[in-house]
Amino acid sequence: MKTKFTFFKILNEFTNRISVRIINSRNFAAFLGILMMFGYNSTTNAQTKIVVPNTNEGSAFIGPYGNAARKLQLIIDDTLLTSLVGKNLTSISFRLPASTIDSWPATALTMNSFDVYLSDSVEPANRQLDFAANVVGTQTQVRSGSLVIPAGALTVGSNPNDFSYKIIFNNPWKYNSGNLLIEIQHSGTGISSRTVQAASTTSAGYGTLYSALWQSTGSVTQGNFSMVEINSVDQLSASSVKIGANSIVYPNPVKDWLFVKSEKEFIAYSVYNKAGQMIISEKISGKSGMNVAKLPVGQYVIQLTDKNGNTEVSQFIKK
Fold first, then answer.
1. SS3 (DSSP) at 33
2. Which of 197, 198, 147 has the alpha carbon at shortest distance from 168?
3. What is the fold of 248-318?
4. Residue 133 in 3-state DSSP?
5. What is the pLDDT of residues 109-138, one digit of tens each?
6. CATH match of 48-234 with 2.60.120
7. Strand ranges of the sheet holding 225-226, from the earlier edge strand across to the other edge
8. Strand 257-261 vs strand 248-250: parallel, antiparallel, or unpaired?
9. Where are the domains of the chain?
10. pLDDT one-digit tens code per residue, 9-41
11. Phi then psi for 118, rounded to 5 degrees?
């Protein structure tokens, strides 16, 4: 008990001396060394989420959950994204209009494909009805594959309604700065369309702070901006660590395959070296293992993301 108390006293003093915003690699390595020496895991929840636009407008748009295949882009000005700078974006969410009576879908459905790409973008005022022309730099695919939407996942009963269903990225994407472009390409629900709350093209911020376009079988068209919640977690650092996780990674030390013993369902993982640099980021399913065979011998931190967008951080040794 005395040893544990002393550890937390040292840990608290250490973390209090580290800047909440910036941590250099030497301090980070030292902190990870303390965690590894005492064999503790750590837990963090999604740190920051923002809603764009942060209003409660009464318009709607089918886009993300159309019954037929669609491609759409959401363009967001960097002035709305300052709280996300330096963070890893992990998921997006849409919500039902306040006038909606029933939760959706009535029964579980699977969209055969739901791909999400992130990149920098042009200014919303310079948006063109040309998908490629709006992309600045390189697009990164952060989500791919089918999307399972449980019955009643998008809930009703409040005004505005909750962003109750997260579309989790397979790979987190670090937002550094600049305008953000979210591109979605999906196969359609195959059943029925479901509108989500949106800001209309006549809204005060449309065309200056945000803009949108979409395409189905016809030409590219301007569209209402589907209100989106963007979720993120801090870069792995001492300032975001909270001691006391229940999940266990094993075997530890590990040679080839790493597994997780937990009551939670994790859908993705990222591996960081002692300098806090991400070196692996992959999705996982069920009880499948994580291949770390190609990692050099040494100590690492693994960040696990569950289906709700929360994360747990643990350590392991590669032998």
1. helix
2. 147
3. Immunoglobulin-like (2.60.40)
4. helix
5. 999 999 999 999 999 999 999 999 999 999
6. yes
7. 59-61, 196-199, 225-226
8. antiparallel
9. 48-234, 248-318
10. 444 444 333 333 333 334 444 444 544 444 444
11. -120, 145
